Amino acid sequence: MSEMKKIKNLKEFSTSADRFEGANLLCPGCAHSIIVREVLNATNDDMVLSASTGCLEVCTAVYPYTSWDASWIHIGFENSSTAVAGAESMYKALKKKGRLKQPDRNPKFVSFAGDGASYDIGFQWISGCMERGHNIMHIVLDNEVYANTGGQRSSSTPIGSSATTSPAGKVSYGEKKNKKDMMTIMAAHGIPYAAQVSPNKWKDMVKKIQHGFAVEGPVFINAVSPCTTEWKFDPKDTMHLADLATDSLVFPLYEIIDGRELNITYRPKNVVPVEEYLAAQGRFKHLFKDEYKYLIKEWQERVDANWAYLQRREEARV
Amino acid sequence: MAFDKMELREIEVWDGNFAAAQALRQAQVDVVAAYPITPSTPIVEGYAQFTADGYVEGEFVMVESEHAAMSACIGAAAAGGRVATATSSQGLALMSETLYQASGMRLPVVLNLVNRALAAPLNVNGDHSDMYMIRDSGWVQFDAFCPQEVYDLNLIAFRVSEDHGVRLPAIVNQDGFMTSHTAQGVKPLSDDAAYAFVGQYKPMNDMLDFEHPVTHGVQTEEDWHFEHKARQHNDLMTKVMPKIESVFAEFAQLTGRKYTPVEKYDMDDADVCVVCLGTSVETAREVAKEMRAQGIKAGVVGLRVIRPFPFFQIADALKGVKAIATLDRSSPNGAAGMLFNEVAGALFNTDTKALLSGYIYGLGGRDLTKAHLVALFKELQANVDAGKVTTQLQQFIGVRGPKLAFL
Fold it and tell me: Angle, nearest 10°, between helix axes B241-255 and B191-198?
């Protein structure tokens, strides 16, 4: 049987099983390590982990060191999902053949990848894994930019953000396209579970991760990962940025069960204006010039419309 | 869950693809992850049918691309079990990134590569462009000339690849259509004998051993990358060939079928010879015998092992020959040709006075006819008689239009 951990309080949570070492090279204030710890702390079961090429990978497995006290594999940029799907297939085969070394274990297969490795270059691989029904969880560490290589735009980069390949300049406000709706696309595969999570709402995250581990079949998790380096905020403010993301509803927390049933899992008591979220980050600084203020208004309208859409879907149970 | 064994006749009539599928079934591969592509598709289809009929206990995963096929193979191999796949041409090109990752991570995988031309122009027929493209990828590479050898070399490849002193993935090449789709007599082992030869997979650094967590696929920069690559090359240069030769010897004891890294035919007293790969070896063998009736002492050298390159074995095989032709079935696109270069490298610094010339042939499935080879052997004899290469060093044969020759 799968072992579910009962999480009582933050102190206990932060000191529970440590399979991801603090000794890593991630930036001070990086949300990646916080999210990874929250995921790993959601279960006592053994894990087979993978990471796509990216910040998490290059900062945690630089030979001769490793930050991982669990089975871990990195192959390339696009294929962390398929790497654990391969391992999961081997697990099934050896289970059938009675050749598992520890047959009583109930391992969890989890791939981590950035938004570039998920929304863009790894999109096909993830879709293949979801369609085939592997018993894996794919987690996007969504910082809305190719952070590892210095801040190039991905299809998760939102409108108006200044990225190095869609920079703001004399005649440009930066990124022109809106963020790809990965949750809807993934849910459309009919997978048993898809959810958005945020490191500041750790109880919500753990609940969702545990639900994801409990279901049979592929699970997609999109985790907002505020990036001190590319979003340009003070490293001490990571959780504040996560709070602004969830409480402005720029990054709403919800889940989609079996591709159909949408549940909003967090409703902020006081909704923060989107302007506050944008103003806290250097990547949107130029939007506060007079000529671009209309974009801030459009941002608010877009977030409001999306929130209304999510609520309609939740009510309609579709 | 159990699986059924298959009763096989002493001699089956199999094409190269079915021979490969049968070998994978008998090796009781734990995970086959694959994507179909002509002309290797029947391997995957054959294996799928075995699975559907209850002859396979392992997992069979049909993925969405060749890149994903090898990605899943790598994940499965790192998890700790026997892994195999098949592909051709564009599929190999797509998975080429992961080929380097499989070998660099020292993961045993057996890949059946059914050789086919590379686009553009698009072409589904056999040549060796795909084989040549990934020759420096760190995989052990075998070459089969007929369906029997496809079957045998698959069983041998698992033994070599999975050996704890080797731990490198292995490719078994066969010619697209000429071998893959041509049914011939194949003498298989019984299911039990084949599995006894391949043996049960012995895991190493397996991710599914939760008492010993392992990190696969690390980052190394200028501080360690060179040492890792050097060590892999060192193993290919020093450990792999002895292992191949010992597995060949064991296989010969079991079956009577003897393989060597460099196969020699009529070479004992040969004045002239060709060095080639795949089905061309068999055509050349027949023509060489006919040339001998005409007074030209012709021989044939076929490469059974392409990587590691049998440097000394090929020099030894060509020791007494007076004129040599290398036959490259891939456009060198601005160079002399892979076999020409490798053979020249192996012969340089030796006592040979042999005259070496190269021929480019058979691109995109163009036939290499006996007439081509008769003319070729006559040219080699003319070189011997003149004491020099009488043609240009590189000639295209079988191509339409005015004669194409370079160098």
Answer: 160
